C-alpha cells in the first residue's frame, strides 16, 4: 500500500455515523421526503434541498451512486470511498466552521448512499461572491472562519485536499463552513509528507511540479490562498500566475496583498499556516475596502473588467450580512 492509500486508510478507521438502511430503491420515492430543488452536481454526488415530513426545517441530501459499477479498474470503488470519507469526517469533526452532518443512509441494494446535512442558505462562496459585492470586512470574516476550520482539522492531522470556493458554504448569517470531505485524508503519527495529491485544476501548489514528497497541510494552505485570490479578483487561476499577479497589483490593500503573497508563496516552508493567517487578520487593522485603485496599476484593467462582468452584484442583504467577528469565536453554538 503506498503512502497516499495509507493516509486514506486512516480516515477509513474513523467511526462512521449510524448508517440506516432503507428498503426503497431511491430515498426520493418515499412519500415522507420531497425534493425542493437541485443545489449542485459534482463528479461524485448530486446535492438536493429537501423537506422531510415531521422535520420543521429544510435539509440537504447529498446522493452518491456507491455501487461498484465503474468500468475502469482504477475508479472502481472510488465513489464508495468518497461517501465513506465524507460521512466519517463529518461525523468525527465538530466545529462551528465545518458543515453539520445529521445522518447517513444506504439503500438495501447497496446502490445508493445519502448524506443528510444542515442546509446553508447562503449557498457556496463561488456563487455568493458573484452574486453579492463582498466588502473587505465581510471577506475577512469568511476567510477567518475557513482558516479556523483548517487549523482544527490540521491539528488532527487531517488534510482536506479540495479547498475551493465551491466547498465553502455560508449560513443564514453569512458565516462560513467548510464542506465536501470526500477527498480528505489523515496522516499517520510520525508521517509528515505525502507523494500524491488530488485537487481541482488551478489549486495545485507549485511544489507538486518538483515530483518530491510534500506537506499536505501546506498544500491545503496554497489552495486556501487560491480560493482567497479567486474571491478577491474574480479571475481564473489557470489563466494567470496568481502569485505574480498579486505581486504586480498595486491597487490591492496591503491587508489582503500581504496575506495572499504569504499564502501563495511558492516555497512551502515560507508559506503561512492557518495560525499565521489568523494572527495577521487579528493583528492588522482591517479595511472595508479591497482595492484602492491606482492609475499606474498594470493589473487595473483586469480588476475593472471583473467588476464590469458582474454588473448586477448587489451588497450582501441584511439577513445574510456577515456578523461581527467576535460572534464567530464565542457567540455561536449549534
Ligand atoms: N449543505 C448545503 N447547503 C447548501 N448548499 C449546498 C450544501 N451542500 C452542498 N451544497 C451545494 O452543492 C454543491 C456541491 O456540493 P459538494 O458537497 O461540494 O459536492 P461535490 O462532492 O459534488 O462537489 C456545493 O458547491 C453547493 O453549491
Ligand atoms: Mg464540492
UniProtKB/TrEMBL annotation:
Pfam families: Pkinase (PF00069). GO terms for molecular function: kinase activity. SUPFAM superfamilies: Protein kinase-like (PK-like). ATP binds at residue 63. Keywords: ATP-binding, Kinase, Nucleotide-binding, Serine/threonine-protein kinase, Transferase. InterPro entries: Kinase-like_dom_sf, Prot_kinase_dom, Protein_kinase_ATP_BS, Ser/Thr_kinase_AS, Ser/Thr_Kinases-Pseudokinases. Residues 33-326 form the Protein kinase domain. Belongs to the protein kinase superfamily. PANTHER family: SERINE/THREONINE-PROTEIN KINASE TNNI3K-RELATED. This is SNF-related serine/threonine-protein kinase. It comes from Aplysia californica.
Amino acid at each position: 500500500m503506498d503512502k497516499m492509500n495509507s493516509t486514506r486508510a486512516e480516515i477509513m478507521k474513523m467511526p462512521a455515523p449510524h448508517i440506516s438502511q432503507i428498503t426503497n430503491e431511491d430515498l426520493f420515492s418515499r412519500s415522507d421526503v420531497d425534493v425542493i430543488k437541485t443545489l449542485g452536481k459534482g463528479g461524485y454526488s448530486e446535492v438536493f434541498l429537501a423537506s422531510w415530513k415531521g422535520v420543521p426545517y429544510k435539509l440537504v441530501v447529498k446522493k452518491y451512486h456507491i455501487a461498484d459499477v465503474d468500468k475502469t479498474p482504477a475508479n472502481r470503488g472510488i465513489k464508495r470511498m468518497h461517501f465513506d470519507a465524507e460521512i466519517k469526517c463529518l461525523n468525527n469533526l465538530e466545529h462551528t466552521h465545518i458543515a453539520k452532518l445529521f445522518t447517513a443512509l444506504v439503500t438495501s441494494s447497496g446502490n445508493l448512499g445519502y448524506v443528510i446535512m444542515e442546509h446553508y442558505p447562503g449557498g457556496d462562496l463561488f456563487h455568493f461572491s458573484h452574486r453579492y459585492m463582498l466588502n473587505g470586512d465581510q471577506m475577512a470574516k469568511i476567510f477567518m472562519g475557513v482558516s479556523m476550520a483548517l487549523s482544527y482539522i490540521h491539528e488532527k492531522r487531517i488534510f482536506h485536499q479540495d479547498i475551493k470556493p465551491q466547498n465553502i458554504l455560508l449560513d443564514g448569517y453569512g458565516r462560513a463552513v467548510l464542506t465536501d470531505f470526500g477527498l480528505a485524508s489523515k496522516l499517520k503519527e510520525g508521517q509528515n509528507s505525502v507523494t500524491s495529491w488530488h485537487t481541482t485544476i488551478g489549486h495545485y501548489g507549485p511544489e507538486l511540479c518538483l515530483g518530491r514528497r510534500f506537506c499536505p497541510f501546506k498544500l491545503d494552505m496554497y489552495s486556501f490562498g487560491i480560493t482567497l485570490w479567486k474571491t478577491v479578483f474574480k479571475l481564473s487561476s489557470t489563466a494567470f500566475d496568481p502569485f505574480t499577479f498579486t505581486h504586480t497589483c498595486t491597487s490591492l490593500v496591503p491587508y489582503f496583498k500581504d496575506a495572499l503573497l504569504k499564502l501563495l508563496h511558492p516555497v512551502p516552508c515560507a508559506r503561512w499556516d492557518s495560525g499565521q493567517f489568523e494572527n495577521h487578520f487579528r493583528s492588522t487593522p482591517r479595511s472595508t475596502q479591497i482595492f484602492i485603485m491606482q492609475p499606474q496599476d498594470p493589473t487595473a484593467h483586469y480588476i475593472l473588467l471583473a467588476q464590469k462582468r458582474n454588473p448586477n452584484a448587489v451588497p450582501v442583504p441584511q439577513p445574510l450580512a456577515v456578523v461581527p467577528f467576535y460572534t464567530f469565536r464565542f457567540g455561536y453554538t449549534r
